[in-house]
Specification:
Strand content: 15-25%
Structural class: alpha+beta
Length: 97
Amino acid sequence: MYTDDFGIRKGDNCLVADFGGKVIEAVWTRIMDDYGHVDDEPPSFASSLYKEYRGQGIGSQLMVKIKWKGYERASLAVQKANYAVKIVQGCRMQDGR
């Protein structure tokens, strides 16, 4: 569901961070009926970053750059204990949303 035919459906967007030829993070959006589904307009947002690169602002930079690709909002399903919660809260402060 998260990657099937990625790139051809509405809401499919992806950015990656590269360090020395190695992809160290990917952030992507897709409109789908997943755990964080709100309605059929905002895409769900996902991110994956190698642990050793956390705390360097890489995740925040990619989240701000993707800017939901024209969407005013996005959905993120994440447990409160997940490291990604800190990144999302930081991006809200930077982006004003």
